[in-house]
Specification:
Length: 105
């Protein structure tokens, strides 16, 4: 669920408090994460994605280091973040056919 709450390019409309997404699929995935208790709260001034996890009183920060946008050639999008533990993590989502061929046993 953390990946769904962090691996996206959604912005929050400050006036309405709603998500603005480039695609309906991306919006659906972030809303699904929210329904399961992983709510995207926005991006702070330090380019940290803010994720509130239900049952956890603190907001976790994932520092956004790079974004590889989705396109029809790659059929996937990726973000590179520094997680709350200080580890650098690549989060990737996309078409099953593209992701499956990149997995190792």
């Amino acid at each position: 669920m953390i990946f769904l709450g962090v691996c996206h390019t959604i912005v929050i409309d400050g006036r309405k408090g709603t998500y603005n997404a480039a695609s309906p699929d991306e919006l659906a995935l972030v809303n699904a994460a929210k329904q399961f208790g992983y709510e995207f709260k926005g991006i702070d001034k330090d380019d940290c994605l803010l994720l509130e996890i239900k049952g956890n009183s603190q907001i976790q920060k994932y520092q956004l280091l790079n974004v590889c946008e989705f396109n029809s050639t790659r059929k996937r999008m990726s973000v590179i973040v520094k997680d709350p533990k200080g580890q650098i993590v690549l989060m990737c989502k996309g078409a099953d056919s593209v992701i499956m061929e990149r997995l190792s046993e």
